[in-house]
Amino acid sequence: MFELWSSGVGPVRHTRRVSTIPEIRTLPVPDGLEGERVDAAISRMFGFSRTKAAELAAAGKVLVDGTVVGKSERVHGGAWLEVEMPQAPRPCRSSPSRSRAWRSCTTTTTCS
Predict the structure, then answer these.
(1) What DSSP state is assigned to residue 27?
(2) Which of 21, 23, 28, 84 could covalently link to 61 via disulfide, CB atoms 3.0 to 4.6 Å apart?
(3) DSSP 8-state symbol, 65
(4) What does pTM read for this prediction?
(5) Where are the beta strands (DSSP E) in the chain?
(6) What dihedral angle (degrees, nearest 10) is formed by the CA atoms of 65, 69, 72, 74?
(7) What is the distance, to the nearest Å, from the Cα of residue 54 to the centroid of all Cα atoms in its chain?
(8) Digits of tens for pLDDT over the chain (112 positions)?
C-alpha cells in the first residue's frame, strides 16, 4: 500500500484491486482425449483435480463447441473446450511476532 499526499488534502491510499472479470481459457481437445469424460479432459488439460473439474462443469462454467456440458459428457478430438477458470485465493500475509513469555518467534498469518 502506498501513501501519497495530494494537494494537502491528506493521504491517498492506493491498493491493488483484484479483477472480477472471469478468466476464460479456450483450447482444442487433443485427439488423444477422444471419448474421455469432460471432467477427465479438463483435469488433464488444465491440471485440476477431477473433483474441481466436475464442480466447474456442474456450475455451468464448461462449454464444448459453445454448448454448456455436464461432467459426464464425452469430448471428441478437435472440439473447442472453453473453461471459466476459478478465482485465485486471496494472498495471505505472514508477519513474525515475538512472544515475551516464551521468548520465541512465531508467525502470524492473515488472509484478507
Answers:
(1) E
(2) 84
(3) T
(4) 0.62
(5) 2-5, 11-14, 24-28, 62-64, 67-68, 80-84, 92-99, 104-111
(6) -10
(7) 15
(8) 444 445 555 555 656 666 677 889 999 999 999 999 999 999 999 999 999 999 999 999 999 999 999 999 999 999 999 999 987 666 666 655 555 555 555 555 555 5
